[in-house]
Task: structure prediction
Amino acid sequence: MFQLKNVTRQFGKKVAVNSVTFDILQGQMVGIIGRSGAGKSTLLRMINRLNDVSSGSIHFGDLQVSSLRGAALRSWQRDCAMIFQQFNLVPRLDVLTNVLLGRLNHRSTVLSILNMFTREERIMAIGALERLGIEQTALQPAGTLSGGQQQRVAIARALMQQPKMLLADEPIASLDPLNAKIVMDRCATSTSAMASPSSPTCTRWILRAIIASASSAWRMEASFSMVRRRS
Ligand SMILES: Nc1ncnc2c1ncn2[C@@H]1O[C@H](COP(=O)(O)OP(=O)(O)OP(=O)(O)O)[C@@H](O)[C@H]1O
Ligand SMILES: [Mg+2]
Result:
């Protein structure tokens, strides 16, 4: 089970996330819904420890995620992949290499520096691109792709990490309905996942929605269950 207990994050005097508490069971796909500035991205960044919590704690099974340091922290960041709102691709590298970068945390420093990937890893990367419908872009510089294509490259890179948990920040914001369905199906089948959807489309996939509020406290008590409808 994944748990947040009274998690708060402040930036100076600004409280971005205020005393959030909730659980996610293994295999659940949970959506965080809330207005711009409500703290959705900040919450995801604390879960994969790009931001530290100001107070409170985050747990994944017996692991206290919020206090990890050094190798244990890197190991958690390997297990907890993040699809960023701004994609974070390397525009001058081709698509295939961008996807392969998802394997970096699984590799020795020397192989990483030399940018050497095995045949199996390349086959895995092309498979991920195929499943997202963009294998034809594999050799193109990532910066030349459309926004929706770049978003799918970022998703393929996250899936290459073979994570235990997938955090997706607005994963289908740039996609048309068909590609949104492909991406959400892919996220739903990969692992226990968590999205931060502003789009009502996402509610067809998520099992639970948690309401983020920009006011003094997140209304976590307002969580509700939704029936999963795959169509
Ligand atoms: N590094 C930072 N320094 C200062 N303030 C920050 C920082 N990161 C986020 N904030 C503030 O925290 C609040 C929450 O931001 P966050 O990006 O988490 O919102 P969001 O719900 O993801 O919004 P959106 O839907 O627009 O992406 C905002 O008021 C933002 O200005
Ligand atoms: Mg955001």
